[in-house]
Design brief:
Chain B: InterPro entries: 2-oxoacid:Fd_oxidoreductase (IPR051457), THDP-binding (IPR029061), TPP_enzyme_TPP-bd (IPR011766). Chain B: Residues 52-198 form the Thiamine pyrophosphate enzyme TPP-binding domain. Chain B: It comes from Anaeromicrobium sediminis. The structure holds 2 protein chains of 2 kinds. The N and C termini of chain A lie far apart (48 Å). Chain A has helices spanning 11-22, 36-45, 59-71, 82-98, 125-130, 146-163, 173-177, 245-260, 263-266, 287-300, 318-327, 340-349, 368-378; strands at 5-10, 26-29, 52-55, 76-80, 102-108, 139-141, 166-172, 179-184, 229-231, 269-272, 279-282, 305-310, 312-314, 330-335, 354-359. In chain A, the strands form 3 sheets. Chain A has a 7-stranded mixed β-sheet with strand order 3-2-4-5-7-6-13, with helices on both faces. A 5-stranded mixed β-sheet of chain A has the order 10-12-11-14-15, with helices on both faces. Chain A has a two-stranded antiparallel sheet with strand order 1-8. Chain A has 2 domains: 5-189, 3-Layer(aba) Sandwich (Rossmann fold); 270-378, Rossmann fold, CATH 3.40.50.920. Helix content of chain A is 39%, strand content 20%. In chain A, strand 4, helix 4 and strand 5 (102-108) form a beta-alpha-beta unit. Chain B is α/β, with parallel strands linked by helices. Helix content of chain B is 40%, strand content 18%. Chain B has an 8-stranded mixed β-sheet, sandwiched between helices. Classes of the chains: A alpha/beta, B alpha/beta. At the A-B interface, helix 3, helix 4 and strand 9 of A face strand 2, helix 3, helix 5 and helix 12 of B. Strand 9 (229-231) of chain A pairs parallel with strand 2 (65-68) of chain B.
C-alpha cells in the first residue's frame, strides 16, 4: 500500500499540487477570475518548498517574470483567464522564440472581452494556437477532471522541459472550480523530466546549437557560468540576432519541428465506446463529461454512439481523427464555443465524414440531454 | 586600439555597434561596463536585461548573461530573474520610451517593491529605432515625426517618477558628465534595493536634426552647459535655473529589499516545519 494522499479539492487546487509535484519553484502572475485559486495556492505553497511567488503588476509582467525565472533554471508557471491570456500573448511568443520552458494555465471563461467572468467557456482554444504573432510551436492540454488536472499539470512541466517551449494547460471554469476526490500519487510514482543542461566548456557553448538530428538545444541557466545572450529576434545558434533569411528559415523550421516531429509523444486522447460506433461525439475539457453522459444514455437506447476526447488539444490529434472519420458516419463536435474545434475537425477530415457542431455561448454548460438530442437529430 | 576595459567586458566579435555616429549611447554603455569592472563583479553573476529600442541593443555587446526582451518589459523579466536567483547582480538598460511609456507600469512597481535591480535609462528624448517619434521625454514644443506641428504632451521627469514610486537610489547624469555617471551606477549597484539612474543621451540623427540642435558635439556641449548639479542648484535663483536641468543624486536611502523580505518568509516557514 503506497502512502498516497486522498483529498477533496478543486481543479485549480489540483493544478497547484501538480505543479509543486512537477518541481515548480517560481510563479509570477496577476489574479483573475476564475483562475485565482491557482495564484492563491501557489502563494501559500511555494515558499514552503523554498520556491518563489510574486504577484506582478499585470498579466504581461506575470508572463515576463515567469520567463525571466525560467532562464535562471527555475521551473516556472503563471495562470490566468480569458482577458489575461490575451495580455500574455506577446510574451508567450517570446518564450517560444527564446525557447524558455514554462507553463501557462488558462482557466477559460466566457468572452469576448470581460464577458461573463464567472461562467465557463471553451472560447480560447484558437487563441491558444493563434494568439501570438508569427509561426511557433504550440502545446496545449485540456483536462476533464480534477485528478487529470493534477496529472496534466505535471505533464505540462515535463513537456515544457523536454521541448523547451511554453506549454498551455487549457482548463475551463467547470474543471477549475469543480470539487472531486483525488488521490495524489507519491513522489516516486511521478515521472519528472528536467531540461537538458550543457556539459561542454562555457567557451564552447552554443546556446541555440543542436547536434545532429536533435531539435532541442541544451539550456544553461543564467548564473551557471555559461554567459550567453537571449533575444526574441531571429538568432543564430550562438543566440545573437541576425537578419539572415536563411537563419530565420532554419530557426523557425526547427522550432516547429520540435512539436511536429514529436506529435506521437505529445498527443494524448481518450476513446469511449468506439468499437462499433457509427456516430462519434468529440468533446474535451469539462464539457466532455456531459458528452460521456450523453453517450451512455444513447447506448442505453441502443444507439451506436461513442466519444473521442482530445486530451492534447494542440497539436491536434489529426491522425486519430482521420482514422475515426474513415470509420464513422458522423462526428458531432461538442464544445462551449461557436465552433472552434469543429472547424479544425472539418479541416482535418476533409469531407471523409459528416461533421456537425453543438455549442453554447451563453455562459451555461451543455447538458447530456441537449447533446443526446443533437445525436438523435444527426442520426 | 581597444582599451582593456572593452576587451574585458565586451563581446569583441559583436562590435562595432549599430548606433548612429554621434549617438550618446556608447558612452553610457561604457559607463556601465566601467562601473561593473570597478566593483570587481564576477561576470558570470551579472545579468543585463533590456527591452526594445536603440538603448536596448546594448546587452548584445556586453559579455555577461544578457537578455533582450519585449518592448517595455525588461523590468518584468528582470524581476523574475532576480527573484528566482537573488545572487545575480541584475542591471536593466532601457530607453525613455521603453521605460516610461510602454514600460511605465513596470517601472513604478519595480520601484515600489524596492527589488534589487539597477535600472539605467538612456534618455535621448525620442524614439530612435522607429525613426524619431515623440516619447514621454520629448520636451513640449519639440518636433518628432509624429509631432509634426510640435509636441503638446508634457514630458515626464523620469527621476521624479522613480523617486515618487519608491526607488531607494535615484540619480541623473549625462553622456558628457561620464565620471559622475560611473559613480552613480556603482552606487546604484551597491544599493540593496531599486536604483534608477537616468543617463541623458543624445540622438543627433533624429531628435537633434529635426529640432536643429546641431551636431553631436553641439548636443554634448548643450548637456555640459545646461546641466546643474542638484546641490549647486540650491544656491541658484529660479531665474538662473531657467532652461537648465538637474543632475546629481536625488535619492539615497534604505528600505527593506524585496528578495530579502521574501527569503525571510522562506526561512520562517522552514523553521516551522
Amino acid at each position: 500500500m503506497k502512502n498516497n494522499v486522498v483529498k477533496l479539492m478543486q481543479g485549480n487546487e489540483a493544478c497547484v499540487e501538480g505543479a509543486i509535484a512537477a518541481g515548480m519553484t517560481f510563479y509570477g502572475g496577476y489574479p483573475i477570475t476564475p483562475s485565482t485559486e491557482v495564484a492563491e495556492g501557489s502563494a501559500e505553497k511555494l515558499p514552503r518548498v523554498g520556491g518563489k511567488f510574486i504577484q506582478m503588476e499585470d498579466e504581461i509582467a506575470g508572463m515576463a517574470a515567469t520567463i525571466g525565472a525560467a532562464l535562471t533554471g527555475a521551473k516556472a508557471m503563471t495562470a490566468t483567464s480569458g482577458p489575461g491570456f490575451s495580455l500574455k500573448q506577446e510574451n508567450i511568443g517570446y518564450a517560444a522564440m527564446a525557447e524558455a520552458p514554462c507553463v501557462i494555465v488558462n482557466v477559460q471563461r466566457h468572452g469576448p472581452s470581460t464577458g461573463l467572468p464567472t461562467s465557463p467557456s471553451q472560447g480560447d482554444v484558437m487563441q491558444a494556437k493563434w494568439g501570438t504573432h508569427g509561426d511557433h510551436p504550440v502545446i496545449a492540454l485540456s483536462p476533464s477532471s480534477v485528478k487529470e488536472t493534477f496529472d496534466l499539470t505535471v505533464r505540462c512541466f515535463n513537456l515544457a522541459e523536454k521541448y523547451r517551449t511554453p506549454v498551455i494547460l487549457l482548463l475551463d471554469e467547470i474543471v477549475g472550480h469543480m470539487r472531486e476526490k483525488i488521490e495524489i500519487p507519491s513522489a516516486d510514482d511521478i515521472e519528472i523530466i528536467d531540461r537538458k543542461k550543457p556539459t561542454c566548456a562555457p567557451e564552447d557553448y552554443l546556446a541555440y546549437g543542436v547536434e545532429g538530428d536533435e531539435l532541442v538545444p541544451a539550456m544553461a541557466g543564467f548564473g551557471d557560468g555559461y554567459r550567453y545572450h537571449v533575444t526574441g529576434l531571429v538568432h543564430d545558434e550562438t543566440g545573437f540576432p541576425t537578419n539572415s533569411t536563411e537563419v530565420a528559415q532554419t530557426l523557425i523550421t526547427r522550432l516547429m519541428d520540435k512539436v511536429e516531429k514529436n506529435v506521437d509523444d505529445i498527443v494524448e486522447y481518450e476513446e469511449f465506446m468506439l468499437e462499433d460506433a457509427e456516430l462519434v461525439v468529440l468533446g474535451y475539457g469539462g464539457n466532455a463529461r456531459a458528452v460521456k453522459a450523453a453517450v451512455r444514455k444513447a447506448r442505453e437506447e441502443g444507439l451506436k454512439v461513442g466519444m473521442f476526447r482530445p486530451i492534447t488539444i494542440w497539436p491536434f490529434p489529426e491522425k486519430q481523427v482521420i482514422e475515426l472519420a474513415n470509420k464513422v458516419d458522423n462526428i458531432i463536435v461538442s464544445e462551449l464555443n461557436y465552433g472552434q474545434i469543429a472547424l479544425e475537425v472539418e479541416r482535418v477530415v476533409k469531407g471523409a465524414t459528416k461533421v456537425s457542431h453543438i455549442g453554447k455561448i451563453n455562459g451555461e454548460i451543455l447538458t447530456p440531454d441537449e447533446i443526446l438530442a443533437k445525436i438523435k437529430e444527426v442520426l | 586600439m581597444s582599451s582593456q576595459l572593452i576587451q574585458d567586458t565586451f563581446r569583441m566579435n559583436k562590435l562595432p555597434h549599430i548606433w548612429c555616429p554621434g549617438c550618446g549611447h556608447g558612452i553610457l554603455m561604457r559607463g556601465i561596463a566601467q562601473a561593473i569592472q570597478n566593483l570587481g563583479l564576477d561576470k558570470d553573476k551579472v545579468c543585463v536585461v533590456s527591452g526594445i529600442g536603440c538603448s536596448s541593443r546594448a546587452p548584445g555587446y556586453m559579455d555577461f548573461n544578457t537578455l533582450h526582451t519585449t518592448h517595455g518589459r525588461a523590468l518584468a523579466f528582470a524581476t523574475g530573474v532576480k527573484l528566482a536567483r537573488p545572487e545575480l547582480t541584475v542591471i536593466v538598460i532601457t530607453g525613455d520610451g521603453d521605460a516610461s511609456a510602454i514600460g511605465g507600469n513596470h517601472l513604478i512597481h519595480a520601484a515600489r517593491r524596492n527589488i534589487d535591480i539597477t535600472t539605467i535609462v538612456f534618455n535621448n528624448n525620442i524614439y530612435g529605432m522607429t525613426g524619431g517619434q515623440y516619447s514621454p521625454a520629448t520636451p513640449t514644443g519639440d518636433l518628432g515625426t509624429t509631432a509634426p506641428y510640435g509636441n503638446i504632451d508634457r514630458p515626464f521627469d523620469i527621476c521624479n517618477l522613480g523617486a515618487a514610486a519608491g526607488a531607494t537610489y535615484v540619480a541623473r547624469s549625462t553622456a558628457y558628465h561620464v565620471n559622475p555617471l560611473i559613480k552613480y551606477i556603482q552606487k546604484g549597484i551597491e544599493n540593496k534595493g531599486f536604483s534608477l539612474i537616468e543617463g541623458i543621451s543624445s540622438c543627433p540623427t533624429y531628435y537633434g536634426r529635426k529640432n536643429k540642435k546641431g551636431d553631436s558635439v553641439n548636443m554634448l556641449k548643450w548637456q555640459k552647459d545646461h546641466a546643474v548639479d542638484v546641490k549647486r542648484a540650491e544656491k541658484l535663483t529660479e531665474e538662473q535655473l531657467e532652461g537648465k536641468f538637474l543632475i546629481g543624486e536625488f535619492v539615497s536611502t534604505t528600505s527593506p529589499e524585496y528578495t530579502e523580505e521574501y527569503q525571510k518568509i522562506i526561512d520562517r516557514l522552514s523553521k516551522e516545519r
